[in-house]
Request: fold
Amino acid sequence: MSGQWLEVRLRAPGELAEAVAELFARYAPQGVVLEPEADRGRGTIIVRAFLEASSAPISRKKIEEGLWHMGQIQPLPDAEFEWIEDQDWLQSWKANYRPIPVGGRLLIHPPWMQSEDPERMPIILDPGMAFGTGAHPSTRLTLMALEGVLQDGDRLIDVGCGSGILSIAAARLGAAHCLGVDIDPRAIENARHNVDLNQVSGRVELRVGSLADLLPPAQPEPITAEVVVANILAKVLLRLLDEGLAQLLGPGGTLILSGILDSQMPAMRMACRAAGLQEWRELAEGEWRALVLKKTPPSAERTGSGASSR
Ligand code: SAH
Reply:
């Protein structure tokens, strides 16, 4: 553990920060730090990681290749690399990491920090491999929506749980049982670690899998919950809606969808309506949107409440 580290930094637009962090994390066993810039309106996030000296040249090359590919979809600034002394990196990491308040009642902070805000419920997250550090607007919107709809004793299904952040938050907010699924086994591993850190393993169950594992024929009956959350790319959400996502809702249940760009809202609204869902609320941050939906009650068709008649 002596010697130097190669620090890599990139000032990423908010919507790409998680993808950049995921790339860095492959070469940075110590994890990745996401720092929202002071001017949050701009949505820029500094993504920072520390590469081990022995493998730094290879890691750097791989990261540069990865960034080049990402840059083909949306332009990215160049990454900056800087050699730093061993003693400094931990300091720099800790000094730069800030707890992230979300919604009215939650505060996300890393395991090495104590929460200094007694008013907010802490969610401890090891900034590691999986998506879901709370730095992304779509995660924040989902947490805000959850705060608004979750009631004591509710069950939750979290499709695409990533780091487990939403299930952990739900457990903190009073959920009796949360089931998180993710197609990525590494996400489930990271989520387990975070669930343990937060001491909510009694109420959070995690499985590798997706929607199909919760519905017939994999199950005799659909597994249902009062609240279902899915914060995934809109393209995936559309597919999940088509595959029966709404069947996970128990009577009167609420679905929270996030990961949607403003421009994708018309298609999303149409798919929700086709799935028999009625829009309850829309949340926005920058160009990101989240939708809170309920199963259309049969009577709503006749009362003609707003948008239900196409
Ligand atoms: N819930 C977290 C993570 C969101 S990132 C948060 O709100 O911050 C989206 C996650 O969905 C990723 O971990 C990805 O592996 C997972 N995912 C992508 N497609 C999926 C699918 N079809 N079924 C289940 N999980 C999926």
Summary: Residues 130-132, 139, 142, 159-162, 165-166, 181-184, 187, 210, 231-232, 236 surround S-adenosyl-L-homocysteine (CB under 6 Å).
